[in-house]
Design a protein that fits this description.
Shape: globular
CATH class: Alpha Beta
Order of helices and strands: HEEHHEHHEHEHEHHEHEHE
Number of domains: 1
Structural class: alpha/beta
Helix content: 40-55%
Distance between the termini: 55 Å
Radius of gyration: 18 Å
Strand content: 15-25%
Strand order of the largest sheet: 1-2-3-4-5-6-7-8
Largest sheet: 8 strands, mixed, barrel
CATH architecture: Alpha-Beta Barrel
Number of helices: 11
């Protein structure tokens, strides 16, 4: 299959498939699903099915805008049946927000078609490399906020997710990369950085989401550091929307993890 046919297969109806991964609020002795992140995959049975291959191809071909739109629509369609109290995280490239001035109109129309309120939507900015057009980027961010849509920064702590992007985007959520989360119970440096991000988020009026939590010791450490929004295989793998609905995870339940200790900053 040539490049043109590959891209056409991605953009065709049903070309993008979506799983969701729940985000839990783990606090006050309970764990409650508060959001679901849409995770897009390429056409089944093709080389582009794995997400990392799909989006590397998309970036190489500079087709982020078209594919982001397809992923947004697929994500909203997949989440139509989720309870109305859940937020829906949609991944969008920074370059799309810098180039696609009609993106907000498209997103609002897609949300309306799926009967999803804009206030439930979180645009999660990924691949924060150059915005392509700074004024356009700021204009789109402002329009998202005016529509009641929240902003999240992905991969906080690595790559381009830096202080400049925090100032430019004024995010509602900082999603800490799994690199900082893994083995944070054993690594003082990781704990110091996580604490600094938590403190910074409090000052910015944002919330921290810890990604890639796989061990109960990591979760206990995050809770001790004041981070209670948790995403990762310890609590749930990514799964289909129907599987999530049938799993029972959407019912708030007691949890066994409590911050029984506190780490010093140094």
């Amino acid at each position: 299959m040539n490049d043109k046919s590959l891209l056409a297969s991605v953009l065709a109806p049903g070309g993008i498939t979506v799983n969701v991964q729940p985000i839990f609020d783990v606090g006050e002795g309970r764990q409650t699903v508060v959001a679901a992140e849409c995770l897009s995959r390429g056409p089944r049975g093709t080389n582009l099915e794995p997400a990392n291959v799909l989006f590397e191809y998309v970036r190489r071909k500079k087709e982020e805008t078209a594919v982001d739109r397809a992923c947004v629509m697929a994500g909203l369609m997949a989440c139509r049946k989720l309870p109305a109290n859940l937020m829906i995280d949609l991944n969008v490239h920074a370059s799309t927000l810098g180039r696609d001035l009609s993106f907000v109109d498209f997103l609002l129309q897609a949300a309306e078609a799926c009967a999803i309120a804009p206030s439930r939507i979180v645009v999660e900015i990924v691949e924060h490399s150059p915005y392509w057009d700074g004024p356009n980027f700021f204009s789109v961010i402002q329009a998202l906020r005016q529509a009641g849509i929240s902003i999240a920064l992905d991969d906080v702590g690595i790559g381009y997710s830096n202080y400049k992007m925090m100032i430019d985007a004024h995010p509602n959520f900082l999603k800490v990369d799994r690199y900082l989360v893994q083995n944070c119970d054993k690594d003082e440096y990781r704990r110091i950085v996580l604490r600094s991000i938590s403190d910074l988020a409090n000052q910015l009026g944002a919330k921290v989401v810890a990604e890639g939590v796989e061990r109960s010791e990591e979760l206990e450490t995050l809770l001790a550091l004041g981070i209670r929004l948790i995403q990762g295989y310890l609590l749930s793998p990514n799964r289909s929307n129907d599987d999530l609905m049938a799993s029972g995870l959407l019912q708030s339940r007691p949890h066994p993890w409590r911050p029984a200790f506190a780490f010093a900053a140094g």
